[in-house]
């Protein structure tokens, strides 16, 4: 039968350590509903410039911030510690280069993933005569006071990627978000895998809000589809650890029928674990990193790649300049969040770019492409 | 054994102790009366230090009882012993080089005022303590690391006295002292005695034992052989108890002029930061004694000849060939060996086996010279020849007594067939039996053609062993004496007129 | 030499005293039994071989770390060195199979060079190795990110990856023999031989009492530097195997230094030097890897793993740390 | 000879302050040439805030290192302390004192565990505190998805953001803690005994020092300092943060600061004043590089070089002193 738990393979042991566990503290039903609704929404603006598009815009006035250029724009960055952020930051720098005439100085401070350093950085930037401040917060809750202090200083503040718990910034820019990401992958995998099959969920690490929301949406999807989630493991983004975990799960359960993950960094490692064990690669999701897209195509996987596009790093520069022009901007500024599927896979593959490049960079029209990203 | 005096300060009954299954002490009884100096003697490894550490709380006995002033005590640590009025001068230094004299002296019982360490009081009391033992040049706030060995010994003594102990244990307190300092110590011990303090005195120097003690307990293989009144015994009898056989009290025969071969090692006008104008010839077949006061530069000379702290000026030739002794390795390649004075710090590799310790130098420098098996066999023979006492050659050397460790170190160097041997206080802390074995060995090496340089603070030994003696003072060679010189001759050169004037 | 007293067999004594391998073997056996109960298939030769193969890098790192630790030092830079090596390899090979062997040689040279620098700074400039290698760790991580602009480039071709990923298949009895395991067996044997050699003995002596060693003619700084070079080489081999096993990433070596040190200590080697065996160190690493697999098999929740790991390490070290009473 | 003149044990101003002065002078010039200002108010405030956080941990770390031990669990203790404090306060000023007390008590308990493992169970400090760190990591990972609790507004306004001129209150707190630690080291029996245990445990033991007690106390104090750093961070972040300690690399950086400050890693020599110098040096390098917008990875390389170089200079001086 296909009933989980009926056959010897689905013995009590498999359900013992399994299941999706408690829902994350980060899960907010209203946000979840809103994001899922956005997945179907149509953005305003030119489709070939998704970084300028907005989903469900709600415009705010910015006339008070109007100022003559050229401007000094300051950026407090949470970190540059992974390829996603590297690609994004290069994209942002290229955008600054593209707006050369309007930006006289671009100051970038890297908090190296430390909350307390970013708080100090923001404080420091406030003394530097910036015309606008862009913040990509390291942690939502803990950076809130610092961002509030920046708002109070009177200059326009633009927050993107991860958010803050305050409405004071002029706008908050990000794509649809983690619920959307997690949901898309989970829906796909649970539909494609064999009914009653066993799913392994791979997470990078606990406690990062953008990642927690991804898992919490996936959990909802799996619970609804009654998927037998046999393990939820943290990989630290380490491919070796990932391979060992997947290998041991294949051993323990004979086979694994679906793999979901909250970020694409270890997707290739997970695929390889199946290859090396001589097992077929089950339905799986990754992200828009080129190494995954390539193995997907080469090995004809059943796969999907939800994205958290790096083109969102262009938008804060554009937004800041619009604000300094006194033009209205949308707050929040929700960017579209495309999904790479079997159908559009070829359009994103690019053999000339490095394996850890992100396909969704929206950077092909920017100065210095492709050299800057290589 | 005579009945314990009714007022015994310390009474030990049936003390037993084993380390890793090896019985080190077995049913030892001992007592000390107030005002008594009670000497404990025995061969290396007889268990003297272990017994002393049991009384001072350093080790817990496996069996037996300790009574202090008639009260049974379970000493859970050195602190308990201090509380009970027991102070100890350890055989090995127990000082912190980074800390000052005062901080060392009062470590563990710093004077406090209103809960805070009273540094002024600490310095003042240290000064008074030092003065009371005749030491006036030593500053209470000097870091101990800057002091010479003798001064450190003085600090160690002051540290024990600072406890105001009723019972003071001295485990080879004179091993590092020169004669005039030993005199000071004598005075001190007598004063303590008058104040009714009991003293347990451990020494290999039997003269001291006879000079100071009222009774003597002899230990052998962890058992008490006897306790005798000092007045009623003789050196010979004591030695017989210790070794279980008669020992000749003579030094081995000196080299005849005809036995002396060519100059093995010649030094001309050499010096470094600690030494100046050193001229020296050492011939095959002779034992060249080096005398001098503490800090006169004797060890510095040995260290220069062995390339540890090389000469920076002058010239050295080995068998007529000029050599630059830049490091121990170069010295060893030139056929030189060096037995250091600081056995614990520089002589042994404590947690390695006896065999590994003995093989260390051959492995390090002459690895390719002979087959492994042959080399090991050779070293085993040498260990047997120097009569190392151990549970096996795989025993960690730190569990051996000091004297036996020294023998292992000797075997290490003998394995290299050195032509020049530098001995720095080779019999310090070594029992009579082993001492005469080492003397014989040194002489035999010379007879077999080695040139031997022997530094010793033990004047009878220096005079008895040397074919010639150079005496050092202030980093120079103050003069040379032929065989047959007297202690007075050595001291006259060692002290010199300049030093006289300084005092 | 005179025997004071006969005691139990010399071999048993050597194994039992601190630094001996008996405790770690006992722990390993317990874990194997636990795995056997839960996942009997794991002990089938082919799967056991795969497990050993994938554990080879950390075992080699532990062996490398052992040389440094037993000589009285630390090497905190090995994790970052592994990362740097993997990233460098990917960029230099850039998916071109023909460059595999030259790059392998280059990695070995690079590993040796980093070890040499660590060793020279520690021994000649007298910087405590904890600090030297901590600084080197920062330098390597920073430099490799800097060099690759924060994202590894290039790629590792199959030729390179096969060392860490592939196996000789269809071997009688064993089923398969991962290349990594072959490398491990050869290098482990070399390590054992090395530790029995004069070099090995003097290395331990240096860790135990460097002054005595120096005065006995041991070239202390050269010996210690050699230990760092061995550690660097071990890291290079580990990087080649790890890069092969799982491909290029910045995470390749993250945290491996602590893993290796923990393994070495688990194996009964004393931090501070002078005691312990290389076999113990390697068994310590194997034990740690087995512990992780065990947690996978028993489904210990991802978040709780560190707790379990921490508790087991403390327990194991506490058990094997029981020394003869010093008083 | 006997009358030879001996220098008294000077506890000189550690060389790290020379390095600090040099760094600041050069940094000031370079930043000036770059068109910036190193010592403007906001930069100075930021610098002192960074120093305050690291400094509190490093002072505690100094104590255990002086005693010949080490604490690799501080990063987790910091995180734990922010959470205990913020969750107990839960946004109300009323719970401020109990929350601070509870955070410190929990930290002290971890220190006690570290101390007992090191002394009683005789596990090497490196492994013992690494193991305890893993225990705490497991707890934090399983029970916290992210920031939790809310720091009392009073604490945020005072310890978190209050300052006297350009000097944050938190830096004054660091100075006070440093002063207290300095006093404890030089004027209490505990301090004398701690340095002795670090210098040579056997000598200390045979001199009647209760080594175990001294070391356990040092570990408790170290954890208390880490706990205090956690409370400070909670006051900066407005909530508890389960990963703030590890992200801040407080374990390795605190050890680096201690050693740069001239304390011997092996124990027995050094002090807290040098440590504060080390902390200020690291924070100044950060501030200067921030001003110059130096790439974070390049900065890391430089930091590595400086840590090694600083210690190499000490080693050189120690060698010369030993030779003199
Ligand atoms: N173990 C050692 N380590 C470093 N230096 C030493 C050592 N032993 C001796 N020296 C150096 O040699 C110097 C010269 O004094 P030296 O020890 O030679 O006097 P000495 O006459 O040999 O006295 P002693 O009888 O104490 O050996 C000492 O000041 C010391 O610096
Ligand atoms: N901590 C220890 N562990 C194991 N064995 C020990 C230990 N301390 C001493 N021994 C052994 O106990 C025996 C007695 O040693 P002890 O130091 O008491 O001798 P001793 O009479 O003081 O000798 P010496 O005259 O050489 O100082 C020796 O065989 C020694 O090897
Ligand atoms: O913030 C970013 C993004 O959310 C990305 O998806 C993963 O890396 C994180 O650093
Ligand atoms: Mg003794
Ligand atoms: Mg000497």
TrEMBL record, chain B:
Gene3D superfamilies: P-loop containing nucleotide triphosphate hydrolases. One of its GO terms (cellular component) is plasma membrane. CDD domains: ABC_Carb_Monos_I (cd03216), ABC_Carb_Monos_II (cd03215). Residues 10-246, 255-499 form the ABC transporter domain. PROSITE patterns: ABC_TRANSPORTER_1 (PS00211), ABC_TRANSPORTER_2 (PS50893). InterPro entries: AAA+_ATPase (IPR003593), ABC_carbohydrate_import_ATPase (IPR050107), ABC_transporter-like_ATP-bd (IPR003439), ABC_transporter-like_CS (IPR017871), P-loop_NTPase (IPR027417). It is found in: Cell membrane. GO terms for molecular function: ATP binding; ATP hydrolysis activity. This is Ribose transport system ATP-binding protein. It comes from Micromonospora rifamycinica. The lineage of its organism: Bacteria, Bacillati, Actinomycetota, Actinomycetes, Micromonosporales.
Automatic annotation (TrEMBL), chain C:
Keywords: Cell membrane, Membrane, Transmembrane, Transmembrane helix. GO terms for molecular function: transmembrane transporter activity. InterPro entries: ABC_transp_permease. The keyword ATP-binding does not apply. It is found in: Cell membrane. It is a multi-pass membrane protein. Pfam families: BPD_transp_2 (PF02653). GO terms for cellular component: plasma membrane. This is Monosaccharide ABC transporter membrane protein, CUT2 family. It comes from Micromonospora rifamycinica. The lineage of its organism: Bacteria, Bacillati, Actinomycetota, Actinomycetes, Micromonosporales.
Automatic annotation (TrEMBL), chain D:
One of its GO terms (molecular function) is transmembrane transporter activity. InterPro entries: ABC_transp_permease. The keyword Membrane applies. It is found in: Cell membrane. Keywords: Cell membrane, Membrane, Transmembrane, Transmembrane helix. Its main location: membrane. It comes from the Bacteria. One of its GO terms (cellular component) is plasma membrane. The keyword Transmembrane helix applies. It holds the Pfam family BPD_transp_2. It is a multi-pass membrane protein. This is Ribose transport system permease protein.
């Amino acid at each position: 039968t296909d009933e989980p738990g009926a056959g010897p393979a689905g013995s009590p042991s498999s359900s013992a350590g399994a299941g999706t566990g408690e829902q994350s503290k980060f899960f907010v039903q209203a946000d979840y509903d809103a994001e899922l609704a956005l997945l179907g929404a149509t953005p305003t603006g030119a489709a070939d410039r998704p970084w300028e598009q907005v989903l469900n815009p709600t415009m705010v006035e910015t006339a008070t911030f109007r100022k003559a250029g050229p401007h000094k724009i300051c950026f407090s960055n949470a970190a540059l510690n992974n390829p996603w952020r590297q690609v994004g930051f290069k994209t942002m720098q290229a955008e600054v280069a593209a707006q050369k005439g309007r930006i006289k100085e671009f100051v970038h401070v890297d908090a190296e993933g430390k909350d307390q350093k970013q708080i100090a950085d923001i404080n420091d930037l406030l003394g530097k005569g910036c015309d606008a401040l862009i913040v990509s917060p390291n942690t939502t809750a803990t950076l809130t006071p610092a961002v509030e202090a920046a708002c109070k200083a009177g200059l326009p503040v633009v927050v993107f990627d991860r958010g803050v718990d305050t409405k004071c910034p002029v706008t908050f820019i990000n794509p649809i978000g983690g619920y959307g990401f997690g949901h898309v992958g989970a829906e796909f995998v649970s539909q494609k895998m064999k009914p009653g099959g066993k799913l392994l969920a791979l997470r990078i690490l606990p406690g990062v809000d953008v990642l927690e929301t991804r898992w919490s949406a996936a959990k909802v999807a799996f619970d609804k589809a009654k998927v037998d989630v046999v393990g939820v493991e943290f990989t630290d983004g380490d491919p070796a650890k990932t391979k060992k975990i997947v290998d041991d799960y294949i051993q323990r359960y004979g086979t694994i029928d679906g793999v979901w993950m909250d970020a694409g960094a270890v997707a290739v490692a997970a695929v390889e674990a199946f290859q090396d064990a001589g097992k077929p690669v089950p339905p799986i999701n990754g992200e828009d990193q080129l190494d995954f897209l390539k193995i997907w195509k080469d090995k004809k996987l059943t796969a999907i790649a939800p994205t958290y596009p790096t083109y969102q790093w262009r938008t804060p520069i554009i937004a800041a300049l619009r604000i300094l022009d006194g033009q209205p901007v949308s707050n929040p500024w929700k960017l579209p969040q495309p999904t790479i599927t079997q159908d559009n896979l070829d359009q994103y593959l690019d053999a000339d770019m490095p394996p850890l490049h992100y396909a969704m960079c929206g950077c092909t029209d920017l100065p210095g492409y492709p050299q800057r990203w290589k | 054994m005579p009945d314990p005096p009714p007022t015994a300060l310390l009474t030990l009954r049936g003390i037993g102790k084993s380390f890793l299954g090896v019985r080190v002490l077995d049913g030892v009884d001992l007592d000390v009366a107030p005002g008594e100096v009670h000497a404990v003697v025995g061969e290396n490894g007889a268990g003297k230090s272990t017994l002393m550490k049991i009384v001072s709380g350093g080790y817990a006995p496996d069996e037996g009882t300790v009574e202090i002033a008639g009260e049974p005590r379970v000493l859970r640590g050195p602190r308990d012993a201090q509380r009970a009025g027991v102070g100890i001068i350890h055989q090995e230094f127990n000082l912190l080089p980074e800390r000052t004299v005062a901080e060392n002296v009062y470590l563990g019982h710093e004077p406090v005022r209103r809960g805070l360490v009273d540094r002024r009081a600490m310095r003042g009391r240290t000064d008074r303590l030092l003065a009371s033992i005749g030491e006036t040049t030593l500053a209470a706030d000097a870091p101990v690391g800057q002091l010479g060995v003798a001064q450190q010994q003085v600090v160690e003594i002051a540290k024990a006295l600072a406890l105001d102990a009723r019972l003071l244990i001295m485990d080879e307190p004179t091993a590092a002292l020169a004669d005039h300092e030993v005199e000071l110590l004598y005075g001190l011990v007598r004063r303590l005695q008058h104040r009714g303090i009991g003293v347990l005195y451990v020494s290999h120097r039997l003269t001291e034992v006879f000079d100071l003690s009222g009774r003597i307990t002899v230990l052998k293989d962890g058992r008490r052989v006897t306790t005798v009144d000092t007045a009623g015994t003789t050196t010979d009898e004591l030695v017989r108890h210790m070794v279980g056989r008669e020992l000749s009290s003579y030094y081995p025969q000196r080299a005849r002029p005809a036995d002396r071969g060519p100059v093995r090692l010649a030094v001309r006008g050499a010096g470094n930061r600690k030494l100046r104008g050193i001229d020296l010839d050492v011939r095959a077949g002779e034992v060249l004694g080096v005398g001098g006061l503490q800090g006169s530069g004797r060890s510095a000379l040995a260290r220069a000849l062995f390339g540890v702290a090389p000469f920076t000026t002058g010239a050295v030739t080995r068998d007529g060939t000029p050599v630059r002794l830049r490091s121990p390795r170069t010295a060893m390649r030139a056929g030189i060996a060096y037995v250091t004075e600081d056995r614990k710090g520089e002589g042994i590799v404590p947690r390695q086996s006896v065999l590994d310790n003995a093989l260390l130098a051959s492995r390090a420098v002459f690895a390719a010279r002979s087959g492994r098996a042959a080399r090991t066999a050779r070293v085993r023979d040498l260990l047997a020849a120097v009569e190392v006492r151990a549970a096996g050659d795989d025993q960690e050397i730190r569990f051996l007594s000091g004297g036996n460790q020294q023998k292992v170190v000797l075997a290490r160097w003998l394995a290299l067939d050195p032509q020049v041997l530098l001995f720095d206080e080779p019999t310090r802390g070594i029992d009579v039996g082993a001492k005469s074995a080492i003397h014989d060995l040194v002489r035999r090496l010379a007879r077999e053609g080695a040139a031997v340089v022997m530094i010793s603070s033990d004047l009878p030994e220096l005079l008895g062993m040397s074919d010639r003696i150079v005496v050092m003072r202030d980093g120079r060679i103050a003069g040379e004496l032929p065989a047959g010189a007297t202690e007075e001759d050595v001291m006259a050169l060692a002290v010199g007129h300049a030093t006289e004037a300084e005092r | 030499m005179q025997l004071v007293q006969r005691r139990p067999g010399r071999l048993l004594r050597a194994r039992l005293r601190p630094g001996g391998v008996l405790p770690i073997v006992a722990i390993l056996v317990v874990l194997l039994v636990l795995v056997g109960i839960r996942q009997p298939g794991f002990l089938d030769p082919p799967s056991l071989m795969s497990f050993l193969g994938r554990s080879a890098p950390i075992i080699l790192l532990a062996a490398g770390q052992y040389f440094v630790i037993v000589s009285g030092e630390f090497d905190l830079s090995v994790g970052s060195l592994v990362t740097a090596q993997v990233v460098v390899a990917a960029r230099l090979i850039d998916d071109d199979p023909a460059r595999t062997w030259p790059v392998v040689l280059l990695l070995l040279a690079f590993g040796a060079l980093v070890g040499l620098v660590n060793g020279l700074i520690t021994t000649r400039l007298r910087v405590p190795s904890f600090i030297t290698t901590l600084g080197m760790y920062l330098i390597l991580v920073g430099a490799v990110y800097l060099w690759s602009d924060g994202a590894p480039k290039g790629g590792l071709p199959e030729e390179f990856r096969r060392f860490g990923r592939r196996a000789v298949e269809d071997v009688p009895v064993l089923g398969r023999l991962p290349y990594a395991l072959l490398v491990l067996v050869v290098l482990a044997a070399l390590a054992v031989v090395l530790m029995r050699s004069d070099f090995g003995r003097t290395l331990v002596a240096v860790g135990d009492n460097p002054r005595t060693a120096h005065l006995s003619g041991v070239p202390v700084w050269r010996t210690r530097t050699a230990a760092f070079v061995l550690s660097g080489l071990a890291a290079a081999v580990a990087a080649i195997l790890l890069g092969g096993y799982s491909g290029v990433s910045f995470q390749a070596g993250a945290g491996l230094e602590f893993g290796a040190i923990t393994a070495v200590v688990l194996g009964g080697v004393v931090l501070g030097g002078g005691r312990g065996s290389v076999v113990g160190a390697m068994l310590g690493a194997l034990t740690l890897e087995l512990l992780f697999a065990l947690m996978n098999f028993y489904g210990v929740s991802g978040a709780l793993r560190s707790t379990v790991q921490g508790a087991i390490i403390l327990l194991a070290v506490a058990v094997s740390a029981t020394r003869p009473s010093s008083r | 000879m006997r009358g030879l003149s001996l220098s008294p044990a000077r506890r000189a101003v550690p060389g790290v302050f020379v390095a600090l002065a040099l760094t600041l002078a050069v940094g000031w010039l370079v930043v000036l040439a770059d068109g910036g200002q190193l010592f403007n108010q906001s930069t100075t405030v930021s610098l002192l805030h960074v120093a305050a956080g690291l400094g509190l941990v490093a002072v505690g770390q100094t104590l255990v290192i002086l005693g010949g031990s080490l604490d690799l669990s501080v990063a987790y203790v910091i995180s734990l302390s922010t959470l205990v404090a913020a969750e107990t306060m839960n946004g109300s000023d009323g719970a401020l004192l109990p929350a601070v007390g509870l955070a410190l008590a929990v930290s002290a308990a971890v220190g006690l565990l570290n101390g007992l493992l090191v002394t009683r169970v005789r596990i090497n400090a490196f492994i013992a505190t690494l193991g305890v760190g893993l225990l705490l990591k497991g707890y934090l990972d399983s029970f916290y998805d992210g920031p939790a609790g809310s720091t009392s507004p009073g604490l945020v306004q005072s310890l978190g953001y209050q300052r006297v001129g350009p000097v944050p209150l938190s830096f004054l707190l660091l100075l006070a803690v440093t002063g207290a630690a300095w006093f404890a080291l030089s004027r209490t029996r505990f301090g004398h005994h701690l340095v002795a245990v670090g210098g040579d445990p056997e000598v200390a033991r045979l001199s009647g020092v209760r080594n175990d007690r001294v070391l356990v106390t040092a570990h408790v104090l170290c954890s208390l300092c880490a706990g205090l750093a956690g409370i400070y961070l909670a006051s900066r972040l407005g909530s508890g943060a389960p990963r703030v300690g590890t992200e801040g690399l407080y374990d390795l950086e605190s050890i680096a600061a201690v050693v740069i400050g001239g304390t011997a890693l092996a124990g027995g020599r050094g002090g807290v004043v040098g440590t504060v110098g080390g902390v200020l040096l690291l924070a100044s390098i950060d501030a200067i590089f921030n001003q110059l917008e130096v790439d974070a990875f390049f900065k890391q390389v430089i930091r590595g070089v400086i840590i090694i170089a600083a210690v190499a200079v000490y080693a050189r001086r120690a060698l010369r002193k030993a030779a003199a």
